[in-house]
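quick one before i forget lol
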Amino acid sequence: MNHSTLSGLTLWLALAAPAVLGITGLLLVPLYQSRPMVLARLAARMAALGLASSLLSGLCLWLDGPVHASMKLFGPFELGLHLDSLSLVMLNLVTFLLLVVFRYSVPYMSGDPGQVRFTRWLSLTGASVLTILISGNLVQFALAWSSTSWCLHHLLVFYPDRPGARLAARKKFLVSRLGDACLLTVIVLSWKAYQTWNFAELFSAVDRLRHASRLSISTEASLIGFLLVLGAMLKSAQFPFHSWLPDTMETPTPVSALMHAGIINAGGFLILRLNALVMLSPAAMSTLALFGAFTALFASLVMLTHASIKRSLAFSTVAQMGFMMLECGVGAFSLALLHLVAHSLYKAHAFLSSGGAVDHVRPALPTRLPAYAGIALLVSLTTSLVLTVTSAFLLKVDPTRPEHFLLSGLFVLAQTHLLFALWIRSPRTRHWFVVAGISFGISLAYFALNRLFEAVFPAPPNQLHSTATWVEWTLTLLLLPLFLARMVAQFLRPAGPRSPFFQRLYVHARNGFYFNTLANRIVGALWPLKSTLRSS
């Protein structure tokens, strides 16, 4: 098979993934209107077909290399596909998640009078997300981005008689329109700065700019970076645009799983796809890192105060998206992609199994910490530090790079949490050595996967952002102690600190420091809820 034939096959196989779901939503739904269960099972089979086609396209891409194709429509507008290692990873991840969600939805939605409507909008939402992943130009990307939001809106108001669902959907709708405005402005500025919307041509133009002897970045290029960062923050529920995500609990569980495991990653994918453009603005990169870090700390603190499993998972998603934005902001794009994949798989499982989560969580929560808790925490921290440093040394990870130092420090704290929790539950010495051995394996796997994803998705040279490394070191010095304090607070929470300060802090955190209340008032003023409910 020659090069052109294999490239064509790669394109058609990748295009088949969103096409089969689009066919399901637009053509098969009217044919099976009176047989909702047959339609649901057929949609699951179409999702399986989409996964098979994406796996085959990945194999062809591995054999033939990246593929880019475009077809002129009129004027500067065109249809295009852009397939590379990033597309390969994301396409297979999302098609797998869609298959799981569709199969889960068959019995879950059985007997619901809106099952046909649910299948239609779930199919169209999935097709829109997959179109984002393979789009070959900015205009096509923006249209698919907006289409995802519009289709998701119908799922968020699946039960229109619930005021909470309507309010959350309206907050999401307004935030998404701001994100659309950012992308629309990026489209205008990109044409002015580069005279193209084609991804391949954009990346070539940026590459030439980066290798110029005297680097001079235009105002348009800097503004594009900021608008992409703002669009990503809006799409991925970053502070202060986060309040809509924890409120979208009135929608069916399969929608929550897809939204938290797939759709919410669109902001991260925007930065990963267009990282070359964002890196032209060091200030935009620093802004992304700072807001991502604050969002991660803020949401992880609020998460501790919620007894509702699904709402706690929602704030966990906000925090994880903050971590991913932090990774992108410090230039660790390969690690951000690894984080995206791991979080998606974990969060889909967490939501789809949330019904039985209480039985697993309750035994793990100690009501009173033992007297040796302080020593246990110190030993866990020391052990985690030794294991992480050893693993990094064995896999030749450079600790002098600020992004590696910061993210390895956060990994140390995560492992400390694991070691301490297991030691408190089972303080026997032999168990400790078993857990330490498992933790060492986790450390090796973490750095090995990091190296693998650096090979699969190498970041462009970062000459411009080197001037902003002080931001990364400042984040390191501030974040690590703050997250250590947050971890200690998590262990103290079941014991219930009695000081007035901690009690007040708990109440304020339980209410999300009232940003959700402020957002509800703004949305209520712009789009009153009562009048719409009366008219409907």
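fyi The two ends are 59 Å apart (CA to CA).
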